Structures are given as structure tokens and as C-alpha cells.
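Researcher: I'd like a structural prediction for the single chain below. Treat it as a standalone chain; there are no partners to consider.
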Amino acid sequence: MALNLAMLLDVRQYVGFDLDTSGRVLAGSDDSGSMQLIEILPDGSVTRLTALPGACSGCYLPSQRAVIVSHDEGGNELHQLSILSIPPPAGRPAEIDSLEPLVRDPRYIHLLADVTHSQICYFTNRRNGVAFDPVIRDLADGTERTLRLGDHMFGEAAISPDGRWLALIVFSAVTANAAHVVLVDLTAPAGEEHQAEITPADAPAINHALAWSPDSDALFFSSNCDREFVAVARHDLATGQRTWLAADQDADLAGWPAPDGSVMLIERNDDGASALAVHETATGERLCDLPLPAPGSLGRTEPVWAPDSCAIAMTVSGASMPSDVLLAVRQRSEPAASPAEDRRRSFSGRPAMLTHSAARIDGEPAASPERHQVPAEDGELIPCLVYRPAAEAAGNSFRGSAVVHVHGGPESQARDDFRIEVQALAAAGHTVLVPNVRGSTGYGKRWYSADDGRRRLDSVADLAALHAYLPELGLDQARAALMGGSYGGYMVLAGLAFQPALWAAGVDIVGIASLVTFLENTSAYRRAYREREYGTLAGDREFLTAASPLTRIDDITAPLFIIHGANDPRVPLSEAEQIHAGLLSRGVECELVVYGDEGHGLAKRGNRTDALQKAFAFLARHLAAGS
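Model: Treating it as a single chain, here is the predicted structure.
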């Protein structure tokens, strides 16, 4: 049986959220139709923990058989926090009414940032609906301390083991894809907290993966502050000195130290694929590789160590591995000659697969990416993954057709992972190009900054370069379509509007039709955050109007298929409605499908199945030979 759409749409995917000292793994599974919590025990048995109306995530409460659950309503991203005891009440997966409220106010967002034995830290915009504040909540008595640190958005938080410090990733208010690291002394009186900059606010940088040394004297993080590529740093609190523990001149690295401070997991981002290794934390010395069971990349959640540092769980996705939870265990044996030797041999072989997402595709081969460098008109090279159709599909009516699938963000990267739509298109006979146009991360600071502000249309021009490259792949330029979600949806609409002669069709998923109306109507808390990337309504309206597909709607002639969620808080449904109405009024084929229980994307399998079946039928009509 060849790989086909029905088989791919039936795939179950898994993500890892947390790991305890007993070897139990808190994970997510979409077996029920949306991502719900499960617990995987050391013997391989699985307990379903939640049966909520929509997708959820969570983490363990240390030293307790309980989980903090993060959930929203219909994809509206107004996240609430609740507690679930394990096993769930009544011995069946918990529904929303059986969760114990922890932090709930449906008017506002509550983002869980860190959990210790006695406290949690979460971010909330309940002060004014726009700016976020870190809140430290005592788990014993429920008292809260809100830190008023200014009008910011935060990416991560980490409370030091001694409880004195709170490390924060603070997003820049003026520079796209930039943040800085600060420390807050929690021993200071409430209202008098001082922020100490660990990386300068005026030096645009990517910063993430905060972690503390066990004695609270050093902070670890991954950063490209003063560097082209992201490296792994150690900041000494006593001296203020920063030491680069792992760096690469040609690729981004990320690091996750074990809680005991002995070793760290290092990921090298190799053109979208993950290469993992274990390093000694004190020196940065590389101890051993940690090979993946198949080519792929770390998935939607970051690796997490067990509290005793004896194991690490991770989510991995690849062309032949839709999304699985893996566990690497540090095996102890007879005494070694030195601690370094013990650490070096403690990780041997591949991590164990706790889940098997490929089971639903019955061992059928998936399309594996080829790596290409596509020349742009200005001499730049655009990294691009190319997925060829299976041999058995090569003789059908789609032979020679191309679909360019553009990722969202734009501060993101198309990685060597599994995407149902890409695999399904390739299985049907299309060749799929998945580019990292300028503005994408993973290729250095210069590349991800190359589309900022007034350079927005430079990334759109990359689409024309990809179209020009199609003959090099043996493809028909007259049968090429665009597909993408969120910012990728903007790119679809921009390609059809600014390059109308090039594209035969487009599939827009929760995309931006007008940069002006998007910024006017997006959730208030996101407006300033996105103006850093696109430009401000106050100072750049003329350019934003000129760069908007809606402005050039009269030039769009290609048929368009639009998918949107009614509850989308990021790109409002009005973006889809106005491009749909405008094209219909001009006699251009355009279909809009709206899902009333979805937000920014499709979180439920039933909706995703319906949408993709319709989208692929649409593409089939317009990309078949002779169409």
C-alpha cells in the first residue's frame, strides 16, 4: 500500500512535556483528535490524563503526583492554569470541570513559565490587557507577587534553585526577533525590584534556553549576542563574566544543562536537521554524540531533564518519524577511572523511542528532503528543502507540478521535520519546495534580519527566484502553486498579488491580507510585538499599505483557497474575509473555509482532515497536466 492522504491524515503525533525521577514522562498525544496529556510509565504503559475540548499542555508539580495543565477555549490563546491529580478523578481522563483551578480569568492570558517545589512563575496581561507581568505564586498558600518591570513581552523565566533570582527573556520593543536576558533579585522589597541586564537591551539578539547551575552561582543560556550564530553561554553572577561553552562559526547551537550541573545536551542546527551531542558543562568539552533513530530535528517542545539528571526526554520529528517522544538514560556501571570517563560512557547508543508515530503509515517510505541553494536575483542563496514525489506517483497527472510551501513566523525555520501537507502533496505526485526565504532563522543574524521593515518585499522576491529555479528541478513553471500559513499565508497572497504571471494557484492558511488592517485588528498585546517586524502604523503606514496584497487585489488572477479559524487572536478572521470578498467581486475563483472552534491554525484532526482534503482537491484541479 503506497503512502496516501488518508493514511497521513490518520497519523498520531506525540510531544514530550516533562520527566520525573521515577522515569515517568508527561507527554501530549493527539490520538483523541487534539493534543491531550498522557503519562508514559517506565514499563511502556500509557495513561490518558485529559479529555479537554481543545489542545492542552502541562508539566509535573515537583514531588507531587499532579500536573499543572495549560488550556484555552477554542484556540483563543487565553491560557488558563489548572491542577490535575494523578490518577485522574473517577479513573478516566479529566474533563474541564474536574480540573482544580489554579490561575483562571478568561479575560486574560496566563502563560506558565517555570515551576519549583514551592512556587510557579507565570506571565499575564491582566494589568491592562496589553503588557505582560511576571507573577510569582506560592503553591502552598496561593499568595502572589506581581513584578512590575515595564511594558514588555517575555519569552522565558527561570527561578534560581536558592529562590533568590528570577532570570527572564525580555523581547525587544523596537527590534524584530530580538530579546535580552535580565536578572531580578527576588529578595528586594515588592515594588523595588531591579533588573540587571545580562545581555544588553540595545544589542539585538536571539536568547533562549535559560537554566541555572545547582548552586545558583551561574546562569546558562543560548544566545547570538555579539555573534552571528547562536552559541551556548555561561554567565557567572559573582564576576559578571560570560563564557562561551559551545559555539560554531557556521550553525546555531542550543544547550540544556542537566540540573546537577555535570553535563549538557547540545543541539547543532545543521540546515534544519538536528545533530545532538553531550558536553561537559564545566569546560564545554564534547563527550559523546547522541544519534537520533532517524534524520530529523527537535520538535515543538524543548528537551527536558529529569530532576536527578539521570535521563533526558525530547520530542523529535523527521520525514519518517512524524513526532515522537525519545528518552536518553544515563547508564551507570562499574566504577570508572574518572568522573569525565563515567559521563562519557553514560550515554551510549540511540535514545529509546517511547512512542511510535510512524505506525499508522505501515512502514511506507516518506519523501525525504533534498537540500538546495536557490540563487536569488541579487546574488543571495535561498536554502530550500525539496521533497520529490514517490516513484509510483511519478506517472500521474501531477508529474512536473510544484507547490512552494512557505513557513510562518517570519522569524522561524522550515526544518527537517514531518509535515502532513508536504508529505501528502508529494505522495499525490507534486514536488514540494520548502524554502527558508530571507527573514528565516537558522542561517545567522544577517539572514533573519534581511526582511525587516522596508525590506519586506525582498522576501517576496525570493518566491520569484524559487519559481525561476523550477526548470533546474525538471518542473513545469506553468503548474506552480503557493501554500503557507500565518506569515506564510501573507507570502502566498503577496506572491499572487506581486507576481501574478508566475503562480497557478494559492492556498492561504490564516494569512495576512493587509499589513495595515492586521496591525489594527490583531490582539492588542501582539500589536507592538509585531510592529517591530513589519513597521508601525504611526510611522510606516504608507509602506505597509504598499506591501499589502489587498492593495494589489486587482492584479490577482490565480484561484485561491483560504482556511481560517473563527477564534484567531493573531490574524483575525477579517483578514480572510476581506480578501475573499474582494476576489469574488472581481470574478476570481476564491473559496473560504472557516472553522468555528479553531484559532490560529487547525488544532483538531477532524478540522485538519476536512480542510486539507478540500485544499488538495483544489490544487489537483489547478495543477494537473492540461489544467
